[in-house]
Prior knowledge:
Elements: H1 3-25, E1 32-37, H2 45-61, E2 68-73, E3 78-84, H3 90-107, E4 115-119, E5 122-127
Antiparallel strand pairs: 1-4, 2-3, 3-5, 4-5
Organism: Punica granatum (Pomegranate)
Family: Belongs to the cysteine-rich repeat secretory protein family. Plasmodesmata-located proteins (PDLD) subfamily.
Keywords: Antibiotic, Antimicrobial, Cell junction, Disulfide bond, Fungicide, Host-virus interaction, Lectin, Mannose-binding, Plant defense, Repeat, Signal
Amino acid sequence: MDSPVRAAAIVIGLLCTIDSARYSVGVPDLTVLSKICNGQEFPYESFRVALDIVLDRLISNTPDYGFNYYDWSDSPSIYGHAACNGKLSKDDCQLCLTIAREQLSVHCPENPYGAQVHLQDCRMRYEFYEFDD
C-alpha cells in the first residue's frame, strides 16, 4: 500500500474509533437498582402540582449544576434531589432523570409523601422534609 493511502487509512480508522468511543461513553444505563415509596398518600391536589414543579426543575437543572441538584417548594413543602453520573452528557442526564421520574410514577401511589428511585446512572428523591443525600 502506498504511504499516503496507508496514512489516510490509519487516520480514518483512528477517527472512527475515537468517534464511536465518544458516543458510547455517555449512553445512560437505565437499570433500576432500587426504589422506595412512602406508603402514605398526600390527599391534596396542591401537593401534586408542587411536586410536578420540583421534579421538572430537577430534570432540567441537574445537568447544569454539576450533575447534583437540590430543589424545593415552599407551600406545600416538598424537597427534591437528583444526581447523574458525571460521565453522561447533559442530554443523557436529562433522559436518565426523565426515566427515573417515570419509574416513580409506575412503582409508587399517586401522591406519596416521599419516594426515591436509583438507576445505574442517575437517581431522584423527594420528601416532605429537608434531607441531605
